């Protein structure tokens, strides 16, 4: 099967979050299943530079008022097509945000261009199916539908909270027939909904964990689209994300101080000392060290961690933050760091090497998300032997087995989870984690279970292949 995947980012060419990791890992994961993946990305400067010499595939004479072309290359073991459209993508900095932190004012045009190019390439280049990732490519199934194309589409929702909604007057420039702008189409509360278009027009819809697939069909977490998602019935499913276990491997990770594996985790102590030093924490080998790695955002429960600080500090533990996000939470993290020197550390921003060091050096990773489509952080934590403390939501609930009394007795716990998502329940879970850490028998067993977890793409790739073949048969 020849599959074209389209996304706004993909590792190792351009990355702002977990979407890039998934898009970057799926080609290798699907290859053993007989699915050959070509990935279409915007021609950002970083992408064009990483691709090196390219082959011009096709000129697009007029894509929303300016010329563009599709170019192709093999780089980093991946077959990549780039939409070389400098007027839309030839910009330094964030793929989505202009200097100052606001969305690029022409994001509606930029990502409509990406979707339109994907629909064109899927038809003209002989692909069997199109795999569309998130709202930035969400119009592609609509373009195919109104071109009466027989190329089937799979639309994957990575986070329903980001929907790509634009004013109604955007519709006129999209090049779609008037009938597309109605409730049974792109219209969404008087606006144009790019993610809604993907949900409505794709042949199949999936999201990145079974738990989240169930949650988004409810009014609480459906973000206004729960009725449509319920209406799609069995066309909506969930497939867990995985990790590229070659890329994420503590036995070979070049970013960490001391490499190790499940057979001998003692080198983690060297990573812990280095992490404490990098974060301005006291070098205390026996103090439980918790870390948060990710967006400093309400969704991620960062405010709950700050409110639960007494459960960490009063029990002689330490905390490290790595990430950036909402201005108010960044300020609160900096404030906690200043008020608790040596006990709370932070790096506001992102650093890939420091993130790896957090997973390899922290004793536990905190992920108290209010909702979480899948989460990759807890998978990294399991892989690196840092049993995570997670909220019992979405993909976190699907991937972390709580180390309760029965699980400990059966030897199957891999971390700790809690519900409901509140400061009190997070504090309780942290207190449990600290007690287990100081238990010389149960913590090593929990750590071993975490590292033995299968966080690879193997099972999920098989499920994707089955879903794609079902689409072709349908």
From TrEMBL:
ADP-alpha-D-glucose binds at residue 15. Residues 2-230 form the Starch synthase catalytic domain. GO terms for cellular component: cytosol. Pathway: Glycan biosynthesis; glycogen biosynthesis. It catalyses: [(1->4)-alpha-D-glucosyl](n) + ADP-alpha-D-glucose = [(1->4)-alpha-D-glucosyl](n+1) + ADP + H(+). GO terms for molecular function: alpha-1,4-glucan glucosyltransferase (ADP-glucose donor) activity; alpha-1,4-glucan glucosyltransferase (UDP-glucose donor) activity. GO terms for biological process: glycogen biosynthetic process. InterPro entries: GS/SS, Starch_synth_cat_dom. Its EC number is 2.4.1.21. Keywords: Glycogen biosynthesis, Glycosyltransferase, Transferase. NCBIfam families: glgA, PRK00654.1-2. Belongs to the glycosyltransferase 1 family. Bacterial/plant glycogen synthase subfamily. Synthesizes alpha-1,4-glucan chains using ADP-glucose. This is Glycogen synthase. It comes from Plastoroseomonas arctica.
């Amino acid at each position: 099967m020849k599959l074209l995947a389209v996304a706004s980012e993909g590792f190792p060419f351009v990355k702002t979050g977990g979407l890039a990791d998934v898009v970057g890992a799926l080609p290798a994961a699907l290859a053993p299943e007989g699915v050959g993946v070509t990935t279409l990305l915007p021609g950002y400067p970083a992408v064009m530079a990483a691709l090196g010499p390219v082959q011009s595939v096709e000129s697009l004479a007029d894509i929303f008022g300016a010329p563009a072309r599709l170019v192709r290359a093999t780089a980093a073991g991946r077959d990549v097509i780039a939409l070389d459209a400098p007027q839309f993508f030839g910009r330094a900095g964030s793929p989505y945000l202009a200097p100052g932190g606001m969305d690029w004012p022409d994001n509606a045009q930029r990502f409509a261009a990406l979707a339109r190019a994907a629909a064109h390439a899927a038809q003209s280049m002989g692909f069997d199916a199109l795999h569309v990732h998130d709202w930035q490519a969400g119009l592609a199934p609509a373009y195919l539908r109104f071109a009466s194309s027989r190329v089937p589409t799979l639309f994957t929702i990575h986070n329903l909270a980001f929907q790509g909604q634009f004013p109604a007057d955007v519709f006129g420039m999209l090049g779609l027939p008037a009938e597309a702008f109605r409730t049974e189409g792109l219209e969404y509360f008087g606006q144009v909904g790019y993610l809604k278009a993907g949900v409505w027009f794709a042949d199949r819809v999936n999201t990145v964990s079974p738990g989240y697939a169930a949650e988004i069909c409810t009014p609480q977490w459906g973000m206004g689209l729960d009725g449509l998602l319920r209406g799609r019935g069995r066309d909506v499913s969930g497939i867990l994300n995985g990790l590229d276990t070659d890329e994420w491997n503590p036995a070979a990770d070049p970013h960490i101080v001391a490499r190790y594996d499940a057979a001998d985790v003692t080198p983690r102590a060297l990573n812990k000392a280095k992490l404490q030093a990098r974060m301005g924490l006291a070098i205390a080998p026996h103090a439980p060290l918790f870390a948060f790695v990710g967006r400093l955002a309400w969704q991620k429960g960062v405010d709950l961690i700050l409110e639960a600080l007494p459960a960490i500090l009063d029990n002689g533990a330490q905390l490290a933050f790595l990430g950036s996000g909402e201005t108010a939470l960044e300020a609160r993290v900096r404030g906690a760091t200043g008020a608790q020197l040596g006990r709370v550390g932070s790096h506001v921003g992102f650093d890939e090497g420091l993130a790896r060091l957090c997973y390899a050096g922290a004793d536990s990773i905190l992920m108290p998300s209010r909702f979480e489509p899948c989460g990759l952080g807890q998978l990294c934590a399991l892989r690196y032997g840092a049993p995570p403390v997670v909220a019992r939501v979405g993909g976190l609930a699907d991937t972390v087995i709580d180390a309760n009394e029965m699980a400990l007795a059966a030897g199957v716990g891999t971390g700790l989870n809690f519900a409901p998502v509140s400061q009190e329940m997070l504090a309780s879970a942290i207190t449990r984690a600290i007690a287990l850490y100081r238990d010389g028998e149960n913590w090593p067993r929990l750590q071993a279970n975490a590292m033995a977890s299968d966080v690879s793409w193997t099972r999920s790739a098989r499920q994707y292949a089955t879903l794609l073949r079902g689409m072709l048969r349908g």
